[in-house]
Amino acid sequence: VAGENFDQSPLRRTFKSKVLAHYPQNIEWNPFDQDAVNMLCMPKGLSFRTQADNRDPQLHSFIITREDGSRTYGFVLTFFEEVTSKQICTAMQTLYQMHNAEQYSSVCASSSCSMDSLASSIDEGDATSLAKLQQYNSYDISRDTLYVSKCICLITPLPFMQACKKFLIQLYKAVTSQQPPPLPLESYIHNILYEVPLPPPGRSLKFYGVYEPIICQRPGPNELPLSDYPLREVFELLGLENLVQVFTCVLLEMQILLYSQ
């Protein structure tokens, strides 16, 4: 378990994640920092879901800034896949049995009753709320399907967000599709790593993803730097007044700290 979140039910806890594989093994100008990438790909840790939970894929990005000021950009698609290990499913069932026992004990203690008379002495409201909690937040190995979070990530020298997003989504569709793509998955990964060049300044580049072509454009030397992030999301997240205030602070060269969960 990652962090002190034992009070949470097992499906709401987060667990330690790790990098399963990365390609290529290393790049001279951009050494792979396994701990940093692991933490930035899954900042909240590994999480589990059941068929009753929302499991829509989510995309997020991150920046690694090195001591010399150089930057690399990461684009991450997180999705959930079914847990096939019986051992992990059994462990989750055990965690729930332990958690439920602790919940009953705490309800019993708050109701000032003895363990012998638990069923008859628990306050009706406590029992009802506990039953609801277990109904909506439970795991039964014989009834539920367990899913675990997994992510695929592209690390790039420039923030081509839209191109990376489209490629990751196509790659995810290929992984989860019943119909395999025209070529092996390794072919598409090799292509984007070794065969798709960085577009020269002021030029556009069109390359083929798994299913559809993808276009990325690099600004010229006299243009504004590449900003491929959708401005609409900034307005939705901060609101108009907050964004104007942040922009004012930027113009006044004030120090700005954005804090978020």
Automatic annotation (TrEMBL):
The keyword Nucleus does not apply. SMART domains: DENN, uDENN. The keyword Signal does not apply. Keywords: Guanine-nucleotide releasing factor. Pfam families: DENN, uDENN. InterPro entries: cDENN_dom, DEN5A/B, DENN_C, Tripartite_DENN, uDENN_dom. Residues 1-261 form the UDENN domain. One of its GO terms (molecular function) is small GTPase binding. It comes from the Eukaryota. This is DEN5B protein. It comes from Hemiprocne comata. The lineage of its organism: Eukaryota, Metazoa, Chordata, Craniata, Vertebrata. The gene is Dennd5b_0.
